[in-house]
Specification:
UDP-n-acetylglucosamine1-carboxyvinyl-transferase, Chain, four-stranded mixed β-sheet
């Protein structure tokens, strides 16, 4: 693995421009999965050319699915049907993609053949029992390493039975794994959640012709259904847009337009939180892409104020907390986060890493097991260890735009997993950001 670093410095002036953010990672993963399982040929436009999503596509190629790449961000997937996947003689490498591994666990648990899912050093430390446990209740057999971490050794040839399960932890990935297994299970599969999570899987299964009933916190489908090929237009990724929403909000005089960003209501908790803090973000040119609501986001600089983040918003912004921490660091008054223990088991312990990074830059941050209180102030220069977490790296690139000194960010290589070209797009908008 490379070990590229960044040096982020105060923005040279205000941030300006119209930016096309890469495709949504969650939608890209699912689009190639469901197209592979469909009967017929599907075209995907706006596919994220990131390492995570390419890893998922490569796995389906290993499983016997023909996938063409006529141009960047486009895939033509020749579906093999729900019963057409073939065993791979090699391990299936998910790279850094927790979404890919957890969804594939549900899908592969229902196949006639054995599979082994592996990942990189970061993914190999992430908890998988939250998905293997519920799948085992359906009849799946999945072995993990000690502590419930990858690799996942999946035993094929099992007969799965539908379940009615209430998840202990709200997780779109676990829900999705159960629904994918449910496609193959006898009877109905019902998944209930303590808090509603993103419904990308439900929306896209419906787009591929599956009869699925869903509402916030609830999903139900019957086994034995087939998928019909369809064309998917992937919206711009809101989690990637989040860094530019915060950057333009904290750099005086800024105005950025982010085009056709996905605004799934289970994804946009950060948008609500930033508006509570006083951010000036408008939605224009609204429409729909592949069953997902989209709009241009026009964001202008506005003084931010600290808030107590409503716990109800937490599940809808779990990937955007690194960006929120930077907004909080530049606000007037403290910001309090509670109910976000899930952040401790992402690509890194994001609560701990963000708190440590902000302290390095001169701020006071009080940590709790499930949150933090960020006391704002003038960000100083300093050296930040990203822990090979793409969202940590991008968050501190934004922090550098408001810092009084240079912010050196170590090990930013994994940014390519979700946002290839982030640094060049950021420089085009006016960021002070160079390699080194």
């Amino acid at each position: 693995m490379s070990s590229m670093d960044w040096c982020a410095t105060k923005a040279r002036a205000s941030l300006q421009g119209t930016l096309a953010i890469p495709g949504d990672k969650s939608v890209s993963h699912r689009s190639v999965m469901f197209a592979a399982l469909a009967d017929g040929v599907s075209t995907i436009d706006g596919f994220l050319e990131g390492e995570d999503t390419r890893a998922t596509a490569a796995i389906f190629s290993q499983l016997g699915v023909r996938i063409e790449t006529p141009s960047a961000s486009q895939r033509i997937v020749h579906g093999v049907g729900v019963d057409g996947l073939k065993a791979s003689s090699k391990f299936l490498d998910c790279g850094n993609a927790g979404t890919g591994m957890r969804l594939l666990a549900g899908l592969l648990a229902a196949q006639k053949f054995d599979s082994v899912l592996v990942g990189d050093a970061s993914l190999s430390k992430r908890p998988m029992r939250r998905v293997t446990g519920p799948l085992e209740k359906m009849g799946a057999r999945i072995d993990t390493d000690e502590g419930g971490v990858p690799p996942l050794r999946i035993h094929g040839g099992q007969t799965l039975t539908g379940v009615d399960v209430t998840l202990e932890v709200a997780s779109a990935q676990v829900k999705s794994a159960l629904l994918l297994a449910g496609l193959y299970a006898q009877g109905e599969t019902v998944v209930r959640e303590p808090h509603p999570t993103r419904d990308y899987t439900e929306r896209m299964l419906a787009a591929f012709g599956v009869d699925i009933e869903f509402s916030p916190g609830y999903a139900r489908l019957r086994g034995g259904q087939r998928l019909a090929a369809t064309n998917v237009a992937v919206p711009a990724d809101f989690s990637s847009a989040a860094f530019f929403l915060v950057a333009a909000s904290i750099v005086p005089g800024s105005e950025l337009r982010l085009t056709q960003v996905g605004l799934n209501p289970r994804r946009t908790g950060l948008l609500q939180a930033l508006r509570m803090m006083g951010a000036d973000i408008r939605e224009e040119n609204a429409g729909m892409h592949g069953g997902e609501p989209v709009a241009d986001l026009l964001v202008r600089y506005a003084p931010l104020r600290g808030i107590e983040v409503p716990e109800a918003l937490v599940p809808d912004m779990i990937d955007e907390f690194p960006a929120l921490f930077i907004a909080a660091a530049c606000a007037d008054g403290p910001t309090v986060v509670r109910g976000a223990a899930e952040l401790r088991v992402k690509e890194s312990d994001r609560l701990g890493v963000m708190a440590a990074g902000l302290r390095t830059l001169g701020l006071v941050v009080d940590e709790t097991p499930d949150g933090a209180t960020i006391h704002p102030g003038q960000l100083q220069g300093g050296e930040i260890e990203s822990h090979h977490d793409h969202r940590i790296a991008m968050a501190f690139a934004v922090a550098g735009q408001g810092a009084s000194g240079e912010v050196h960010i170590r090990n930013v290589d994994t940014v390519a997993t979700s946002f290839p070209g982030f640094d060049s797009l950021a420089r085009d908008a006016g960021f002070g950001l160079v390699e080194g």
